[in-house]
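Note to self: keep these together.
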Amino acid sequence: MTTNLPNTESIKLELDNNWLTIWLNTPENRNALTDQMINDFNNVFEVLNDTKDVRGVTIRGKNNIFCAGGDLKGMNKVFDSKNPIEDAIELSTRVGHFFKAVNSLPQVTIMIIEGFAMAGGLGLACAGDVTIVQSDTKFALTETMVGLTPAQISPYLVSKMGYANARRLMLTAASFNGREALRFGLADFIFDDENQGRDIEEQLKSQVLNCAPGAIAQTKELINSFAIKVDKNFIDLASKNFADQILNGEGKEGISSFIEKRKPKWKK
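Structure:
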């Protein structure tokens, strides 16, 4: 195999039998989607979009943790910026392009979700092709709890779980587990122990490797042509929505309360 993968800091790459496993590897911050992690992913995506050697991709988290979502401590820096509106829009736009890149990879993407997947972490789970979930995994779309909106991930939530489920979960920030995720359509498969999860993944890999890689890439392109559209107009709209809420809405209070480990003012 001739694929040359980049060096990465926040994700770990394992390439075996034409299959790439990407491990989110910053358990100290619960594998949050920091700028560094998004940069690392983008560097890997450049390779994946230009190779036929890698037939599939698995994304999962180290230490039995998938992803806590966006980096709220990093977002907090926006409030001290000289150009907070522009910086908030740029931050959200980068995130929007990241999720679009995950969704549009030419390879089949398998998400293995363990521990918990919150906010943007849940969005990342929805941006893959197949989702395998441990039964006791904890999920929640916590954005509104900290005064933010699930701006850039909303299309993937609706596409994966359906309009009614996504709408309710986005508006209530309700928590749910892996078995409920199966009922909502978020999980395609659930497992109780590591061996069971490995067996499900291996079966899926075997199925994918029996398929022609070019046909898979073209099929994914076809699917995305009639799925919920995520284009520049939507990403720009979602970025302005996010920026307005973080700077002019409750975002500052919500992020501050998270960092200071206290309840936000609106919480009853």
